[in-house]
Structures are given as structure tokens and as C-alpha cells.
Amino acid sequence: MRILFFLYLLVLPSLLFSQEVTPKKNLDMNSQYSSITDTVKKKKALVAKIDQYQIVTIEHDTTIVDTSLTIKSAYRQNYLRRDNFGLLPFSNIGQTYNVLQYSLTDFSPYPDMGFQGKHFNFMSASDIRYYHVATPLTELFFNTSIGKGQNVDSFITLNTSKNLNFFAAYRGLRSEGKYINQLTSIGNFRIGASYNTTDKRYVLYTHYTYQDVLNEENGGITTAEDFESGDPTFTNRQRLEVYLTDAESFLKGKRLFFDHAFRINPKQASNNLYVTHQFNFENKFFEYKQPTVLSTVENTFVERFGESYVTSNIKDQTRFEKLYNKAGLTYENVLLGKFNFFIDDYRSNYKYYRIILNNDGNGVAVNDNLYRQVNNIGGQYEYQKNKWNGRFLLTRSITKETISDLDAKLRYNLNEKIQFDFRYQNISKLPNNNYELYQSSYVQYNWGKDFKNEKINSFSGKIYTPWLNGEVQYSVLNDHLYFEDVSTTEQKANRTQIVNPAQYGNIINYISVKANREFKFGDFGFDNTFLYQKVTQSELILNVPDFVTRNTFYYSAYFFDKALFLQTGIIFNYFTKYYANDYNPVVAEMFVQNTKKIGGYPTFDFFLNAKIRQTRIYLKAEHFNSTFGESNYYSAPNNPYRDFTIRFGLVWNFFQ
Asked: Please, is 209 exposed, middle or buried when counting C-beta atoms within 10 Å of its C-beta (0-12, 13-18, 19+)?
């Protein structure tokens, strides 16, 4: 990783200074003259407009670079760099999250490696953005962390010509945390390009990523009474006993991706025919290490995860490779829209370098490999006319591994200020690999399963207006997969935690209603987001809080002849009590539990934000009410939420 970062620093300056500085005809030309002296005049420098700095998704949706300072952009000043409403972070930055808003879950019919607790900041192919910029654009992001460390994200993109763009970025995090054995060290390196011929006959998007996520794992605190007592002795969180003092988990992955299209007819016309191809090769590696197997709880040895095959130095490794190819033919008509017909090939290999034998040694209990091959045929229709914009996708497998996906999206723009979005998804997805195969040095953490496909039916609608933004979602889940605590009563009494995968045979109905409204009173603002959720199920499997809210009261104004824009206020967060999922580091997954509720506590954050030209500065006192309130705040049953912390950050954009 250090070598990649060094190459990144070495190559980017040469790319930057090699960019052409010759004025382009498509730039905004200001023909007025500015006076240099009383007798000498010269033309003003060419100025690129902000709409010439474009961000493009893999689905070719385009937005504009945003350098404004608003309350919405301030919500994105965090580790994930997006609004994390509906996610409950653990006490240290870079750890996993508990999901408060289930409708944030995104579904794909294809199986992934698993270990979802490690993937919140692991960028998928759809997370990568491409760019088209008039001049080189650089963004520097910085935020302080918990304890020693920092969170940085540096990014640069430039067009060497109107047709060719390059980008490169590196996001790095190191955060010590306040509890024993809680360090996080994370890196996301990505580099890519987009290209099109002048006549747009050929278009290419490509990128390469290398990502790694290292977390020290402490398994949570052993004695909640010490944390909740308010005893000043435990204000220093290093004095709270934890289950694991030297365990760590590590996930790394590489990906090579490109998506390109070639128009068969030489010139753009009212009828066009394209050949399309998408390629995605990715490999991942997950490792769980624990040198000391036995935990110590109040001077007593505890087998936290049960009996182990080894007495020390656990080192469990899982490998995963994926190769995806998709080839298609697209017909485009100016009046009718785009019709795309495709066939794809998905292959993955999930493997270990050992097998687990039966107790008698005569047969294989757990295999070392799970190989999948899925071929699909499908079609996609895109339509954009006047106020309507739609995309409809249908795929179905033609191989033994059966999957299907019906995804219909429709958008209606009533006018420039009012927009309606509708979506329906009917999906049959294969289980992630770690549900069906897992090997561990812990005896009861080995399994080979054969689960049914999960089936999800989901309806959602969104409305955006100047007065109210709203979302509604209704989902029906069949054969829902989850992890559960299967510890016996005796094991629980001995503080042993055994987690295995399971499948729920009944139907789960989920509904959510979310609303956002901002009120303005002169220089004062009051931004409110409310979420209501209801789950109907015969057992407590899908657990979410009924009510989640975030309310921000703030003041904003310009100072010093509008050279400084200032924004300051207080953020209130709250969710009702519920049986939150717990976290297990051996499988890096959240699991269902029904013994302890968390929630019902408010958190208050004070913030002071400022903008000077293209620099945005952020100062935040997080959870300041923890200094005088009760210590009853948790992210998961054994993992306290973060204490009062002062954090500083900035985002700096350069338009060269």
C-alpha cells in the first residue's frame, strides 16, 4: 500500500503539469476587457463555469461538482463521506455500523464474499465516479480521528483533452480509539479514466482499485456495569476490561473494471446500434488473527468463542475471486428510447486451503471450496422524454444456479422544483458465500450449508419539493438469511458466544416512512429528518427501531464583506429502544440477539462551519451531553457508543 501511495504522489504532479493550458473553444469566453493601466488593456482570462465540472456514474447519470457549504453538505463530513442518517457508528472511526434504517440495504442477485461488517467503506464498482472537467480539479479532505491518527482523502482529476479524462485518489484512515485494542487503519486507492472519440462512436470507462481494512478487535466490554456506573475511575476507557486484547481482522481487495460501447453505424443518427461490454475482475482476502485464544474476565479464563482446535495463534484466512463479463447489443431510437439485450457470465471461487473432517476422520464435514457459475440473459429499456425518465431491467439465469432480477425505476419532473421517483424490485438472490461455507479454528464456527435463494419484493416512492422531501418503502422478504446466537444456556452463563447462519422460513413485512423538512427564519434554520419503521414477523429476526430522528437548529450568515460564510448550531439525534444486532469479529457480521435493548438516549453535537472561497472548515463537539448525562449509550449490546469528542476537518478544492 505504501508503494502504491508513493507512486500516486510521484505520478500525479507530472500529469498535472502536463495538462494543456491552451484555451478551449468550449470554455466560457468573456469578451470584455479589464483595465491594467490607463493606457494598456488586455482580455480577461477564460473562466470555466461550474457546470463544466461533471461527475458521471457507471449508469451515465451526471451531476455537477458541489463546493457549497450547506447543512446537507455538512452531514457528509464524516468517514463515509455521505450522510450517515440511519447508520449507528461504533465508538472508533473505521469500525462497523449498526443499521438503524433497513431500507438503506441494497440488493444484488449475485453472491458476494460476505463479511459485511467490513464493507461499509469498501468501494464497489458502482461507487466509483468518473469525471469531465474544464481544468484540473483537486480536492483535499481532512478530519481528525479518535485518539491518535487522522482521516484524509486526496483526489485529482484532469482532462488531457476534451475526450480523455484521468482521475486518481487515495483515502487513508488511522484512528487509535479510546478502548483497549481498537486501532483502525484503512486505505482506499483508486485510479481510472474515461474516454470517448470526438464523434462519440466509442466510449470507455475504466478503473483500478486497491483497498485494505485493518481493525483491531476487542469483542466489546466484559462488564457493562462498570461503564454504566458513572465511576470516574472508568472515565479513562482503557480501564474497562474487554474480551480480546490482541485480535485483529483484515480485509483487502483489488479490482480491474472497464465498461465500453461501440456504435456500429459511423455517424450519430436518429437510429443507432451499439455493441456493449462490461468486465469486472476482483479478488478479496479476509483474515482473522487471535494470538491469545482464552479471554480473561475478572481474573477468570473464558472461551469466548467456544472450543478451539489450537491453543494459540489463530490465523483463519478466506479467499475470494470473481470474474464478470457482460456483452450486449443496444438499439437506440430518438423517439422510442434505448433497448439493450445482453448475456452475462458470472464466476466466483471462494476457497480455503484445508478441509474439515468428520469426528471419525472418514469423511469431509466442511469442504474447502465453493465455486459458482451463473449465466443470465436479460434486457434493459431506457426512456427519456419531456418530464419522464425511466429505466427497466429484467434478468434471469439460464444455468443451474437460479437468480432473477426485475428492477423498474421511473422519474417524473413536474417542474424544476418538484420531482417524483418510483421503484419496484423483485429479486431472487443467491446467499453470500460465508453463509454457505466457513472455516475457523473455533470448532463451532465451521459449516457447510445449502440455503434457498432470498426473495425480496420492494416498492418505494420518493418526492422532492421545496417544502418537503419524503420517502416510502414497503418490502416483503421471503427466506431471509441472517446470523444468530446459537449458544446454549450453559455457554451463555460462561460468556461463550457461538454464532451460526440461519434462514427464516416465514414472511417478513417491512415498511418505512421518512420525511425531511427545513424551516428558514431569516438567518436561522431548523432542519428535521424523521423516520418511522414497522416490521411484521412471527419472530424477532429483522429488528429496527420504530422511530429515528435528527433535528438541527443553526444560524448562518456572511461576514467581512461576504469573504466568510459562517454556520453554527446544534444537532439532536435520537432513536427508540430496540433489540439491536450485536457484532461478532470472527465472522465480521452482525447477528440477531433478543436479550438486551439499546437506544432511548439523545445525543447532542455542537458544530461551527465556515467557508472561505473554495475551502470549507468544520469544527464539531460530538456527543457533548455525555459529559453530564448517564452512561447508557451503546452502538451494540457490548459496544458503547462514542464519548464526547472534539473533531476538526476541512475540504479544500482547487480549480487550476
From this structure: buried
386: pLDDT confidence band, cut at 50, 70 and 90? Answer: confident
- Mean pLDDT value across the chain: 91
Q: How far is CA 626 from CA 353, 606, 634, in A?
A: 48, 13, 12
| pLDDT for residue 471 is more than 80 | yes
Q: How far apart are CA 577 and CA 162, in angstroms?
A: 54
Q: What share of the chain is helix, strand, coil (3-state, %, to 5)?
A: 10, 55, 35
Q: What is the Cα–Cα distance from 598 to 228, expressed in whole angstroms?
A: 13
Q: What b/e string do you get for 467-483 counting C-beta neighbours within 10 Å, with b at 16 or more? A: eebebebbbbbbbbbbb
CA distance 367 to 354: 8
Residue 597 near residue 575 (C-beta atoms within 8 A): no
Decide: helix, strand or coil at residue 572.
strand
Q: Is the dihedral of CA 66, 72, 77, 81 positive or negative?
A: negative
The single-letter code of the amino acid at 419 is Q
**For the whole model, what pTM was predicted?**
0.89
Q: Please report the DSSP string for 480-504 in residue order.
A: EEEEEE---HHHHHTT---EEEEEE
- What does the DSSP assignment read for 54-73? EEE-TT--EEE------HHH
Residue type, 12: L
pLDDT in tens, 164-184: 999 999 999 999 999 999 999
Task: Work out the burial of residue 536: count CB atoms within 10 Å of its CB; fewer than 13 is exposed, 13-18 middle, 19 or more buried.
Answer: exposed
In order of 223, 304, 497, 604, the CA distances from 487 in angstroms are 19, 11, 6, 37
Q: Is the dihedral of CA 108, 111, 116, 120 positive or negative?
A: negative
Q: Higher pLDDT residue, 11 or 114?
A: 114
Instruction: Give the C-alpha separation, 72 to 571, whole Å.
Output: 12
- Residue 118, φ and ψ in degrees, nearest 5: -100, 0
Residues whose CB falls within 8 Å of the CB of residue 584, separated by 6 or more in sequence, listed in order: 483, 497, 499, 590, 591
Q: What is the pLDDT of residue 147?
A: 92
What are the cell numbers at 97?
455500523
- Pairwise CA distance, residues 252 & 441, whole Å: 21
Tell me the β-bridge partners of 412: 388, 420
Residues 6 or more apart whose CB falls under 8 angstroms from that of 462 comprise: 420, 421, 422, 469, 470, 471, 472
Is the separation of the CB atoms in 64 and 72 below 8 Å?
no
pLDDT digits 0-9 by tens, 212-250: 999 999 999 999 999 999 888 999 999 999 999 999 999
Closest among 1, 296, 336, 49 to 172, alpha carbons compared = 1
Find the helix or strand (DSSP H, E) in which 382 lies: strand 369-385
pLDDT at 3: 43
Q: For residue 373, what is its C-alpha cell? A: 457459475
Q: Per DSSP, what are the bridge partners of residue 333? A: 271, 337
Write out the DSSP string of 131-192: EEESS-EEEEEEEE-SSSEEEEEEEEEEESSSSEEEEEEEEEEEE--SSSS--EEEEEEEEE
User: In one letter, which amino acid is 122?
Assistant: F
- The letter for the amino acid at 417 is K
**H/E element, 15:** helix 2-17
Q: Enumerate the β-bridge partners of residue 514.
A: 471, 531
Q: How large is the greatest C-alpha to C-alpha distance in the chain, in angstroms?
A: 100
